[in-house]
Amino acid sequence: MVDTTDNRPKVSVIMNCLNCSKYLIEAIDCVYAQTYKDWEIIFWDNASTDSSAEMAKRYDERLRYFRGDETVPLYAARNYALRQAQGEFIAFLDCDDLWLPTKLEKQIGLFSNEKVGIVFSNTFFLNQKTKADKILYKEKPPAGMIFRQLLGGYFLSLETVVIRRACLDQLSELFDERFHHVGDADLFLRIAFGWEAAYVDEPLAKWRMHAESGTWKKPEIFGHEWKMILVKYRNLFTDFDSEYYHEIRRVKAIAAYYEALGEWKEGRTANVREIIRPHIPDKPKLLAVYLLSVLPYRYYVTLLRLMGRHA
């Protein structure tokens, strides 16, 4: 990442774009509408072929536009953007999500505690079909040293997260570019292993749910990648298997859930029940999937969307 000096922005907002023109103006405008003004946008265009570049270049110098020579995987693009960041703190906003105006103002002050490496908040799920907003956390999530809780049931939403730049400087890698979907979870877990997390108990962002989400298209990839995280952490953290035994069982149950969705999507319902059955004791909610798998997968997806949830 770029070295910082006192006259550089306090916050770098990472925006990665690949053909995002549909929602782009709304996303950029919500950063410009922030009540906290000491920021820059690092806008990384992943070789878009739509009008995204033209739209982004309309803004002033606070939006620093970069374009890759070719389209690369998501987490490689995120790393390219991170390496251009100048801020002491780094926030993330995908081009189809939104921030409320006071987001940065309410989060940055919590970094006055030098032990805090992550600040997150509640968020709204913006359902494109129902147009209804529902909040992510019905109950207050844990804060402080949250690695164990985060591993056992990942609960951060990218658009709410701000991290301290110093956290990244202490890691051996930024985003793990092997991943397609869980790279943000992996990065924030590694930060949470050594830093405290602080929470703002109100929704400060909106996460847009729509049919293009990778969760709906290839859910089995999520399952495979969560298993990859477990293998990675066995090599990274001492006594990982024994120290986090119960959390690992829950991760395996979550991985099984996504793998089962992949089978269900392909119509292999018998496989769904075979995959799910051993993990129901560790994640009782899987029983609902087990029972509902007699129905076509599309009904389950529709049900989740109507409930304002994602897979």
Question: Could you please describe the fold and organization of this structure?
Answer:
By secondary structure, this protein is an alpha/beta fold. The chain folds into two domains: 11-208, Spore Coat Polysaccharide Biosynthesis Protein SpsA, Chain A (Alpha-Beta Complex), CATH 3.90.550; 214-306, no CATH class. 39% of the residues lie in helices and 18% in strands. It contains 14 helices and nine strands. It has helices spanning 24-32, 52-56, 74-82, 103-108, 147-152, 165-169, 183-192, 214-217, 219-236, 240-243, 245-265, 269-276, 286-292, 297-306, and strands at 11-17, 39-45, 63-67, 89-92, 98-99, 116-127, 133-135, 162-164, 196-209. Strands 1, 2, 3, 4, 5, 6, 7, 8 and 9 form a nine-stranded mixed sheet that branches. β1 (11-17), α1 and β2 (39-45) form a beta-alpha-beta unit. α9 packs antiparallel against α11 (245-265) and α11 packs antiparallel against α12 (269-276). The longest helix is centred in the C-terminal third of the chain and has 21 residues, at 245-265. The protein is globular and about 60 Å long. The two termini are 34 Å apart. The relative contact order is 0.12. The model has no long low-confidence stretch (mean pLDDT 93).
